[in-house]
Amino acid sequence: DYQLPLAGRTVTISAGGTREPLDPVRFLGNRSSGKQGVALAVAARNAGATVRLLAAHMDVAPPAGVEVVRVETALQLREAALDAAADSHVVIMSAAVADFRPADVSDTKIKKRDDTADPVITLLRNPDILQELVEQRNAAASASGQLIVGFAAETGDSEGDVLEYAEAKLQRKGCDLLVVNHVGTDKVFGQDSNSVVILSRSGSEPQEASGTKTEVAETIITRISFELNRVSP
Ligand code: C5P
Predict the structure, then answer these.
(1) Rounded distance between C-alpha atoms, residue 223 and residue 120, angstroms
(2) Atom 9 in ligand 1: which residue has the minimum CA distance?
């Protein structure tokens, strides 16, 4: 009997970049385009999964055939992710989540005035959603088979440095797989191609994947299917 590899599975994927408001018209944002996350959603859908896309700001449209939840800030994404993860077999955090948010959000547009000193923005740390997802999974015995995948964009002088930082991040965050990007100035963000290394907490050899974001997504989804069917066929 032929079956798609993710048939009967629910996959939650976060994509794009969060925006942290300063006032009604301004925000702190980042360069994430959402392309890799959307490509993952397409690949998971094509593999037969029920897909929930938690879409922060994206330069691309969400694909057909997936459930879309729009979010703006890291705190909104956190709520949506913890909620969606509760009954997901797989959670992929490919969104670029702001590490900090402005402490005060003005109800009205912040005005410039000649008499005022240079303004200072105080930032608060945002919660680490990926880490909380791992804690939530570990606290729920029934969700023990859930696979949690993180992304890491690392800079470093060499490929070796990057893998070393990423390995430490994988252990610290406790996710099952970590997809590592070596980022330079004009690499990755907004581009149509990508080159990644997939690290696994179970200690298997690092797996390289490069090509278009579609090809990279297919490799990641194939790897996820393999891991999932190995744990609970
Ligand atoms: O620590 P770093 O930001 O490099 O970790 C990246 C991974 O953690 C990504 O999977 C990202 O979606 C996730 N993340 C998160 N919550 C944050 C920051 C990052 O879930 N506040």
Answers:
(1) 46
(2) 151
